[in-house]
Amino acid sequence: MLRKAVGLLLAASFVTAFRLEPGVQHAFSTHVGSSGHTGGATPDVVGQPNLATRLEMTSDPNATLFCARKGDKSTAGYAHFTNANGEEDKHMFWWWFHARKDPENAPVVLIFGGGPGSSGMFMPFSGAGPCRVTAGEDGAGAAVPAEYSWTDEVNVLAIGHPVGVGHSYGTSSSLRNSSERAAWDVDDFLQAFWVKYPSLTKGLFMIQSASYGGTYIPNIVNVIHSRNLAAAEISTSARVVKSPDAASPVPSLHDAEMSIERFSLQTCDVAVGAIYAAGLTGRNPYHATQACNIGEVYDCFPEMGRLNDVMHSDKIRSYIKVPDEVHFVYTSEDTFHRFYTNGDMAQPAYQLLTPAINAGLRVLVYNGNTDGVCSWRSNVSWMRLLKTTHQAAFRTAPDIAWPGVGWLRQMMPVTSSSEDAFREILVKWLRNETFVDTDADSL
């Protein structure tokens, strides 16, 4: 079932006052965009915004990615952040897969992983980018051209977020420990990216993630929105004021209605027992119809191992030219631990979307209907609770059925491919077109 929200518009205004050298200097050295959720003690620069960002391109502009189609272009590099002490201590990896048609005017889709601690390279190498990871003849991971790449329509911009995952790296004392603080780095990267590629500010901008991205995205949206408002009050601001059109899947592990007054230890014990039991069912928690051994990660998620193989290959490393001492990390346990011990998972992050939605942000929430971790029921629950100017309309909007077994696979009459259907969802969303024939009004 699809709960339809009405009246949500795109907010994508921008200004074009740029300062290029020696890097993008940031006006917000104070905590603009703070949600008030900071957790425990703040060690040194971890809790301080960056002073500047230097964007570097590491890939060869004349090289072609081995697994892409002829003519496909991509650009990779690093955003180097200068901390409050004047030191470059964090280095965020970015990889821009150019749109195949009119990239300067095509939408930009920012992609990163969940976790906290998962690499942002999974989606670009699962069909969003020009290449798709698969099993090679020897069983190891291999990369082949993607049949339904998003780059047919959009620019895909993938980042290693937060710094410390994937190819991103930094000094241990500098790495962020909350979604809010990590959001400062994303906004600072985007400012440097828009300055380097100003033509891309003309098109739509969308943020996409999965799983724990449902906590990352509201924090990023809040920081961007708050800093945009603050920049409007500064006549000399050189900020590129560009707002996102966010697609935000939100994890179901957070119960939106739970408060300290309603907490029940007995109920919690029962719930925890059920969760542990679910982990012993021999089913993939993200795909309940799939049998696998959850104790063996690559049994349930073979794509993780294949992506590791591809990212560590000489072909990829020679193309993106990351430092020799930097090794790809699909899942960073250190990042997970930092966020977990700081209480990041306890925040009702969806509430941070309210100001931006009221200002015109459109939000698309999507799910697999057999996903037990990010369930569609949980997402509908927090969406109904979200206090915006559209809440009443959303709560009374009708549910619209998509015929067939799979929401994505069967919604399009022309194909049974979930990859193709998911790309169609993205394109229709960006064009503000209807999803199914019975959905007479645009979303």
UniProtKB/TrEMBL annotation:
Q: What is its EC number?
A: 3.4.16.5
GO BP terms: proteolysis
Q: Name one GO molecular function term.
A: serine-type carboxypeptidase activity
Q: Which domain of life is it from?
A: Eukaryota
- Fetch the InterPro entries from UniProt: AB_hydrolase_fold (IPR029058), Peptidase_S10 (IPR001563)
Keyword entries, A-Z: Carboxypeptidase, Glycoprotein, Hydrolase, Protease, Signal
Q: Which residues form the signal peptide?
A: 1-17
- Matching PANTHER family, A to Z? SERINE CARBOXYPEPTIDASE CTSA-4.1 (PTHR11802:SF113), SERINE PROTEASE FAMILY S10 SERINE CARBOXYPEPTIDASE (PTHR11802)
UniProt similarity note: Belongs to the peptidase S10 family.
| UniProt protein name | carboxypeptidase C
